[in-house]
Specification:
six-stranded mixed sheet; 759 residues; alpha/beta
Length: 759
């Protein structure tokens, strides 16, 4: 009876039937009158429950627990009433349901989600409170859909602006990433849903991602590429991590013994479960020993179609079971994997106290809009063209495909089935109303499609006109307007902001640079709103008075942008990465041998070796070292008001490495509008025995000030902010000597400095 019901359950997966058959299995497991086993008693210590469940499991049940049974689920242990684990793609919304074995849509009518802004937009808020709100909101949606694991956030460092997945990450700086990822993780997990932090580690490009073999020294690894993951593991206490497709020192990241065993589970003492990226496993032996806990994918090789029982052929399925039975493997590694998966299950699907969640609520809409407004970065505003003065403007020309193109669909696994999406043009029309006439012209045709993995936007953006006709119309419309708003940038097509491909150029596609320059000639009142998840070349900055970085902002894109453009919201975002003028300003391209060259790994497999010759000098660190002038520096962003910084002070001029130095600086809103400023702290080691960056971000505070109001901004500087990683000692070292605290509005706009000494 039980076997028959469970078989039916696996085929019929409606929520009601799921609860029914889980209940039957639970009764069968414990007996109606039996005492509740320890593993089911959530009042008992977690480790006691884990050990009790582990000791009751058969060898085959243990094996079943650590690999998928469908595209996004693992089976649990039905005999013991241990439920399935269900994963869903994030990190910017809950992915729509797909068929059991396919990527095709399941065609549910109730799986539309709230599409939240891209993670670069979140990072651009420079506000941990926004990260907490984001995580809590998306976690509520995942919980409502009964997911155990949200596959996000992504926090790989922005090493090159060409990386197709930069829009899913949090920028170029390890400190900023660390400060933003922790509240995101805590927010998600407050719903009883595990955050799955990805992609651990060095997944810094999409080109050749399955064979990319980064060659990185230990100091660079620990100072640049690991801090965000360490913060997520230790401070955020993330319940799961995802490995990457790439290799590291000759072994794949998803079961890399250095990354997973030595660092994550060893040095950092992390007790969560490592989940493979889909199809990232290639070998049973190394998957067993390399620290992987759960194998997911599509078919036997993770990508192509196969037999219906392909899950039993996974590397951590029958091959692993047979290896244990014939003595090739012991059960030591298996029991560790099972313990970690049981912890994950008990923290999520077996937590009877977790909230029920919610989907598409008014609160989520508000969070989406608010995060979007806070993340918009005003890059340039000569002549105060923005915000629009709707009392004087009679006609607004809106130009560009990105004013009308829906962006929640596409980009790879982060593609979403959004409940709705407000385009920039629709948002402006709603906000402006009858105060001014809005005239739209396409200007260029980029990608007229709007479909990914069976989800369609429903837009028909095909346009039969020639590029010349489109350009002529745009110039005619712009010439007669009081102000021109150009909405351009990238989209989520291949070789733009999209998984599995990198961009082929830093330039804007579809002839946008030429169009922008032509528009500037016919109307000097031009604002360019760049919608993208990464930096682009802007050779026309001197000719355009106003430039705004707008990101992908999800459901509320149009409303959030209209709010900022009209001045209802004062922009307060800051760039989470450097806006390079050319690729030669980026160390990965100038020195790093991107995108790599053919090599052979330790097993004789063909790989793409990618030396990280720029070392620790990533982003603004490379800019500072080489005294370069980017288009816009890291941390840059202006406001509709102005802020004055006073003189910084420090509580003591000298102290030991274990002391805490407190730096304070007064910041005043010297303009006429209420606004927010991100005050940034950088540390400079004035004389070190090793080469160090000119300065490094080690603190920031976002303060809201009314006109004329002053805030005393305080930073505490401890050993962590002063140390570098000594690879020979394999330890963080704070050398005695003179340091300098630099406080400013960006990495290139330092307003005050104060020196101090470490004894």
């Amino acid at each position: 009876m039980q076997v028959g019901l469970l078989t039916y359950y696996f085929k019929n997966r409606s929520p009601l039937m799921k609860k029914l058959f889980f209940g039957i299995a639970l009764i069968a497991a414990i007996g109606v009158n039996a005492a509740t086993p320890v593993y089911l008693d959530d009042s008992k210590p977690l480790e006691d429950r884990v050990e009790d469940a582990l000791n009751r499991m058969t060898l085959r049940e243990k094996i079943n627990l650590i690999h998928a049974q469908s595209k996004f689920s693992a089976p649990g242990v039905p005999r013991l009433g241990i439920p399935e684990i269900w994963c869903t793609d994030g990190p910017m919304g809950v992915r729509p349901e797909v068929l059991w074995d396919e990527w095709e849509q399941a065609k549910w009518t109730n799986d539309s989600c709230t599409a939240f802004p891209s993670l670069t937009a979140l990072a651009a808020t420079w506000d941990p409170d926004m990260a907490l709100l984001y995580g809590k909101s998306i976690g509520e949606e995942a919980r409502y859909r009964n997911k155990s694991v949200l596959l996000g956030p992504g926090i790989n460092i922005y090493r090159t602006p060409l990386n197709g997945r930069n829009f899913e990450y949090m920028g170029e700086d390890p400190y900023l990433t660390s400060q933003m990822v922790v509240p995101y993780v805590k927010g998600v997990q407050s719903n009883g849903v595990a955050a799955c932090v990805k992609h651990f580690a060095l997944n810094n490009n999409e080109i050749n991602r399955h064979t990319s073999n980064p060659i990185v020294d230990d100091r660079t690894l620990y100072e640049i590429y690991l801090p965000g993951f360490r913060a997520a593991a230790q401070e955020g206490q993330a319940w799961s991590f995802m490995g990457g497709y790439n290799l590291f020192r000759g072994e794949h990241a998803s079961y890399n013994p250095i990354l997973m065993n030595e660092i994550l589970k060893g040095e950092w003492g992390w007790d969560g479960a490592v989940i493979s990226d889909w199809g990232a496993v290639h070998d049973t032996r190394t998957a067993v020993s390399g620290g992987l806990d759960m194998e997911f994918g599509s078919w036997t090789n993770g990508l192509s179609n196969g037999a219906s029982n392909a899950y039993d052929s996974y590397f951590l399925a029958e091959p692993y079971l047979k290896g244990i039975e014939d003595g090739t493997y012991s059960t030591k590694e298996l029991d560790d994997k099972v313990r970690r998966v049981l912890r994950l299950t008990m923290r999520t699907a077996m937590d009877r106290k977790r909230p029920f969640g919610s989907m598409g609520s008014d609160e989520h809409v508000e969070a989406c809009r608010r995060i979007g407004e806070e993340g918009v970065v005003l890059l340039q505003n000569r002549g105060s063209l923005l915000p629009l003065n709707l009392d004087k403007i009679k006609k607004i020309a809106v130009i560009g495909e990105n004013a009308i193109k829906m962006m929640t669909v596409g980009g790879g696994s982060s593609s979403l089935k959004a409940r709705y999406e407000v385009t920039p043009l629709d948002g402006l029309k709603k906000r402006v109303g009858n105060k001014a006439e809005i005239v739209y012209a396409r200007g260029y045709v980029g990608d007229p499609t709007g479909e990914y993995n069976g989800v369609v936007t429903g837009q028909d953006l095909n346009d039969p006109r020639s590029p010349e006709e489109l350009r002529d119309e745009a110039l005619r419309v712009a010439r007669d307007a009081d102000v021109v708003l150009f909405f351009g940038g990238l989209n989520k097509s291949n070789h733009q902001d999209c998984e599995d491909t990198d961009r082929e150029s830093l330039d804007l596609p579809y002839g946008q640079n030429e169009l922008i320059e032509a528009l500037a000639k016919v109307n000097p009142n031009l604002a360019v709103i760049n919608i993208s998840g990464t930096g682009v070349a802007m050779p026309w900055t001197a000719k355009v008075p106003a430039i705004m970085q707008a990101w992908y902002l999800g459901n509320e894109t149009g409303n959030a942008l209209a709010s900022v453009i009209a001045g209802d919201a004062n922009p307060s975002g800051k760039l989470p990465y450097t806006y390079y003028a050319t690729l030669d300003q980026c160390g990965a391209h100038k020195l790093g041998e991107y995108p790599g060259h053919p090599g052979i790994d330790e097993l004789g497999n063909k790989v793409m070796d990618m030396p990280y010759n720029e070392g620790i000098f990533v982003g603004y660190r490379f800019i500072d070292k080489n005294k370069l002038k980017p288009t816009f520096p890291f941390g840059h962003g202006i406001s509709y008001t102005t802020f004055e910084y006073g003189k910084a002070g420090i509580d003591k001029a000298e102290g030991s490495a274990d002391d805490v130095f407190t730096v304070t600086i007064p910041v005043t809103n010297s303009g006429s509008r209420e606004g927010k400023e991100v005050v940034q702290l950088y540390i400079s080691d004035k004389k070190s025995s090793v080469e160090r960056p000119v300065k490094e971000l080690k603190g920031f505070r976002k303060v809201s000030l009314k006109p004329g109001e002053t805030a005393e901004v305080k930073f505490e500087i401890g050993r962590d902010a002063l140390s570098y990683f000594d690879a020979d000692k394999h330890a963080w070292v704070c050398e005695p000597g003179e340091f300098e605290a630099l406080i400013g509005a960006s990495s290139a706009d330092i307003r005050s400095k104060v020196k101090f000494k470490v004894k």
